[in-house]
C-alpha cells in the first residue's frame, strides 16, 4: 500500500467510487447513457464581476425557483447539483459511526456513496416485486432502528426503474416518522411527470425534503445546479453546513435565464418532445423479439430487459451508440437503460435492435 493510501481514511481506502457515465466512458456519437437532454439553449453571461465572490444563495435564483415550485424562497436551498444536497443532508443530520440512512434498491447509487464517505451506515429495504416502495417495511425499519436511521432516500421517478411514489402512503410514512427521520424524495426527473410531484406535502410535513436539479429537463447538466425544497427549519440546518460560496456567479446567471418565463417555456416544450419520443420508443420496443420487459415510463429514460443484454449492448457499441448497462446489478439482470434522445437517436437505437 502506498504512503498516501495509508493516510486516507480506511472507509475511503475500501470505497468503490460511483461510476458516472463520464467515468465509464465509451466510444460513439450517440450518447444515451447519462439521461442528458439531447439539445442545449444559448445563454448570455456578464463577466464584469467575476473578481467578486458570489452570493451565498443568489436571491434571483431562490425567488425564481420558489415561484416555479410554488413555495416560499426560504423553503429553497440551491446547491452544486442535487448530489451536493444529498451529501449535505447526510452531513447535517447523521452522526458519523452512529447513524444510518435507508435506501430502497435498486435505486440511484450516490445515496450510498455519500453515506459511506461520511462514515454513515446504510440500511436497505428492497423495492417490491414491481419495484414500488414497500412503505410498511420502510416504516417498520425506521421505527425499530432506535433513532439510528435519520434519513430515508426515495427516488421518484426512480432511477433506473422509473417507478413513482404513492402520495397517500408517503404522507402516512411522513406522519409515522415525524421527529425520527427525514424522508427525502429525489425528484430529479419530475419535470417529465410534474403532476406526480410531492411538493404540496411540504406545508404539512416538516420531515419531508425534496431534491431537484436543472440537469435533466432544463438541459443544464454541465452547470451543476440543484435545489433542496423543505420547510424553513430544514433549510436553516443545511445552510450551516453547505460551503460558503456554493453557486458560482456564471451558474447563477444561467439558472436565472433558464427559470425565466421564456426559459420555462423552452423546458416544457422539450419535455413534450422527449415524452413523445419515449412513448414512440416504448411502443416500438414491444414489437422487437429480443425485448423481454419495458419498465415504467416516467422519466427521460427507459429501462429495458433483453433476452441477452450483453449481445444487445455490444451491438449498440458497435454502432456508436453508448448506453448504460445495469445487467450486473441485483434484480436487473439483462437490463440496459436507454436515455431518451432526439428522433434521429431513437431511430438509430431501433435500427440496431431490429438488426439483431
UniProtKB/TrEMBL annotation:
Keywords: Amino-acid biosynthesis, Aminotransferase, Histidine biosynthesis, Pyridoxal phosphate, Transferase. Pathway: Amino-acid biosynthesis; L-histidine biosynthesis; L-histidine from 5-phospho-alpha-D-ribose 1-diphosphate: step 7/9. The modification N6-(pyridoxal phosphate)lysine is found at residue 216. It catalyses: L-histidinol phosphate + 2-oxoglutarate = 3-(imidazol-4-yl)-2-oxopropyl phosphate + L-glutamate. Its EC number is 2.6.1.9. One of its GO terms (molecular function) is histidinol-phosphate transaminase activity. Residues 39-350 form the Aminotransferase class I/classII large domain. The keyword Transferase applies. Its cofactor is pyridoxal 5'-phosphate. Pfam families: Aminotran_1_2 (PF00155). PROSITE patterns: AA_TRANSFER_CLASS_2. Belongs to the class-II pyridoxal-phosphate-dependent aminotransferase family. Histidinol-phosphate aminotransferase subfamily. NCBIfam families: hisC (TIGR01141). HAMAP family: HisC_aminotrans_2 (MF_01023). This is Histidinol-phosphate aminotransferase.
Amino acid at each position: 500500500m502506498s504512503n498516501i493510501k495509508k493516510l486516507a481514511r480506511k472507509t475511503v481506502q475500501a470505497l468503490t467510487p460511483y461510476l458516472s457515465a463520464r467515468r465509464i466512458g465509451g466510444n460513439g456519437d450517440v450518447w444515451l447513457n447519462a439521461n442528458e437532454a439531447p439539445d442545449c439553449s444559448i445563454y448570455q453571461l456578464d463577466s464584469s464581476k467575476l473578481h467578486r465572490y458570489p452570493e451565498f444563495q443568489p436571491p434571483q435564483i431562490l425567488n425564481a425557483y420558489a415561484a416555479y415550485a410554488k413555495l416560499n424562497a426560504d423553503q429553497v436551498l440551491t446547491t452544486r447539483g442535487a448530489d451536493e444536497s444529498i451529501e449535505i443532508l447526510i452531513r447535517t443530520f447523521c452522526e458519523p459511526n452512529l447513524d444510518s440512512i435507508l435506501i430502497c434498491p435498486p435505486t440511484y447509487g450516490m445515496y450510498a456513496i455519500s453515506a459511506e464517505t461520511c462514515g454513515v451506515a446504510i440500511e436497505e429495504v428492497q423495492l417490491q416485486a414491481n419495484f414500488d416502495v414497500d412503505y410498511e417495511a420502510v416504516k417498520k425499519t425506521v421505527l425499530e432502528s432506535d433513532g439510528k436511521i435519520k434519513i430515508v432516500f426515495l427516488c421518484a421517478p426512480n432511477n433506473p426503474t422509473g417507478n413513482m411514489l404513492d402520495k397517500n402512503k408517503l404522507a402516512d410514512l411522513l406522519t409515522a416518522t415525524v421527529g425520527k427521520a427525514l424522508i427525502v424524495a429525489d425528484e430529479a426527473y419530475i419535470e417529465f411527470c410534474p403532476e406526480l410531484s410531492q411538493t404540496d406535502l411540504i406545508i404539512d410535513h416538516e420531515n419531508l425534503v425534496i431534491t431537484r436539479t436543472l440537469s435533466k429537463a432544463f438541459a443544464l447538466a454541465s452547470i451543476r445546479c440543484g435545489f433542496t425544497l423543505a420547510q424553513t427549519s430544514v433549510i436553516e440546518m443545511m445552510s450551516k453546513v453547505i460551503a460558503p460560496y456554493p453557486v458560482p456567479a456564471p451558474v447563477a446567471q444561467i439558472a436565472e435565464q433558464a427559470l425565466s418565463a421564456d426559459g420555462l417555456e423552452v423546458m416544457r416544450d422539450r419535455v413534450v418532445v422527449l415524452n413523445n419520443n419515449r412513448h414512440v420508443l416504448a411502443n416500438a420496443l414491444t414489437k422487437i423479439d429480443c425485448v423481454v420487459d419495458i419498465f415504467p415510463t416516467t422519466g427521460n429514460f427507459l429501462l429495458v430487459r433483453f433476452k441477452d443484454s450483453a449481445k444487445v449492448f455490444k451491438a449498440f457499441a458497435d454502432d456508436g451508440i453508448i448506453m448504460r448497462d445495469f445487467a450486473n446489478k441485483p434484480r436487473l439482470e439483462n437490463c440496459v437503460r436507454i436515455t431518451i434522445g432526439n428522433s434521429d437517436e431513437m431511430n438509430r437505437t431501433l435500427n440496431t435492435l431490429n438488426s439483431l
